[in-house]
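Side project, low priority. Logging it here so it doesn't get lost.
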Amino acid sequence: MRMSRWLLALALSAVALGAAAWLFVSIGEMHDRLARHSGTLALVFLALVGAVAVASAAAAVRLFWVLGRTDPRPIKPPEDVIRAAEVQAQEAEGVITKVRDESVRADLNAELATLRVDRERRRFHVVVFGTGSAGKTSLINALLGRDVGATEAVMGTTRHGEEHTHTLEGVEGTVLLTDTPGLSEFGQGGAMREAEARDLAARADLLLFVVDHDLIRAEYEPLTALARQGKRSIVVLNKVDRLVDQDRDAILAKLRERLTGIVPRDDVVPVAAAPRPTLVRVTQPDGSVQTVYDVEPPDLGALEDRIAAILRREGDVLRAGNLLLRAHLLGKKAQEQIAQERRERAQAVVDKFQWITAGTVFTNPIPALDLLANGAVQLQMISEIATVYGVEITSNHVRMIGLQMIQTLLKLGMVEAATSLIAGLFKSSFVGYAAGGAVQAVSMAYLTHIAGQTFIEYFAHGQSWGDGGMQAALVRQFDLNSRAEFLQEFAKQAIARVLSQKAKAGRHPAGKGS
């Protein structure tokens, strides 16, 4: 783009020079003609021509001066992106109101409020990201000119995202620097802190990816993943004061080569955020020589210039795109919270009805087919799960899908399989117990559990069974919940509940008060 502008300017200059030569001759002829009639008129003509020539020369010089610099004009964000961010924020607000957990809802509303403040004010979120002990906190300390975070040689010093306000020369607005936990941390909570760091990076207007060596796999993967999301990144090679010039140049060249097509060459910047003190020999006034540590100031000039250049030219575009992304992620987080809350409530419904089923069958054993085909308990469970997911469903629809479920269970032979397996568990674990009704009760409770899990998935996916229909959905749940350990624990809990009820009945015979 800039090359074509240079060529156009040179072509226009050539044309201008030719025109100037022709014009010079013409002006001379015109001056001679005017001079024959009036010398004063000829002088006025020359003055006007001179003024026009000076103005034209100044304009040409300014044009070449501008072309010789990086285009400083800021890029305006597309209007449709700005409008889309506003719409997305409004939609996120509507989803947040449906979150039941008050503390989570308050956190989401706070994040939404921050999003709207960032939209109204000129604030740039710059997130410092990278592996532990690459020098992220040292870099922030150097940028701010004060110590705001602890720096240690071990990984995991920064436990949570920490935000700091910074004013950058040449940038209109406020820069919010965010320190993050490191990647690939070991120990308790390492994976959780890395997830937080990635989440903060995904919400950055501009990312400073700090390394102190050539990229390793644990760094290359998240950097390229963020780049695919359109995240603008500067790769900061820190601790270059510890390298000889040859090694520093080799690492920079390797980084730029490795990141071709991902990060522009100019966005791979060397820095020394916290140079190591060096020993120097100082001659004292009395002639003695003393060895002292010489502390060098941080070397961040190239990085600060690069951050300022990007934010001046692309800052508004980066902010607009990131506001849209953040609003989308906020709405997604609220939806995930709602889905989790619904699943927990639906699971409580299933738990309730599997124990109701077990108790009903144990106290009044009837054939399994009759219980499943005609049991109002099963149909009521379907209705309550639908209510949890906000689905209005008719009794005829409930009856239809309930019967389909029973037919599919029988077709797959799950009733016989569950009864046989649980009976075996009773024989091995509870020898001597008259387990006829108990086997049937636990079998039906287990199948109620399977059916309930399947209906949870059905309503969670918009009343869709997914690929393979109801049969495939049932098979998936049967596979997930068919381990002998689960069934054995289930059977133990069932018997414990039955025995507990019998014990209570024995302590409080019918017709006697407590």
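Brief comment: The first strand starts at residue 123 and ends at 130.
Revisit when time allows.
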